[in-house]
UniProtKB/TrEMBL annotation:
Annotated NCBIfam families: DNA_YbaB_EbfC
Protein known as: Uncharacterized protein
Single GO MF descriptor: DNA binding
UniProt keyword list: Coiled coil, DNA-binding
Source species: Amycolatopsis pretoriensis
Residues forming coiled coils: 10-37
Record Gene3D superfamilies: Nucleoid-associated protein YbaB-like domain (3.30.1310.10)
UniProt keyword DNA-binding, yes or no: yes
């Protein structure tokens, strides 16, 4: 049984914090380098965004431009954008899950 009043080894704690910080930074770089694609429900619009949240392209099917008015087309674009943001959030959470889990177990 460990002594609850024992003073923790500060060097060990600092080394642990340093290691976790490096791991978080490594994961952050990985997330920022990711590229995610998402589509509207019927694939009229495809968006591409990077892990830093910046959109790199929004592609609209030419048939959608002829078929929908501006209001409906804007809703389809928003649908694809929101799907992309959701997909990015899920991918980011998956990358950080091991670090979060390890932090909870400390």
């Amino acid at each position: 049984m460990t002594d609850p009043y024992a003073v923790p080894d500060m060097d060990e704690l600092l080394a642990q914090v340093r290691k976790q910080t490096e791991e978080v930074q490594r994961i952050q770089r990985t997330v920022e380098a990711m590229e995610v694609k998402a589509h509207s429900r019927q694939n009229e619009v495809t968006v591409t965004l990077r892990g830093d949240g910046r959109f790199t392209s929004i592609d609209i099917d030419p048939r959608a431009i002829r078929e929908y008015d501006a209001r409906n087309l804007s809703e389809i674009v928003l649908e694809a954008v929101n799907a992309g943001l959701q997909k990015l959030a899920e991918a980011s959470n998956a990358k950080f899950a091991p670090v979060i889990s390890a932090a909870k177990n400390v």
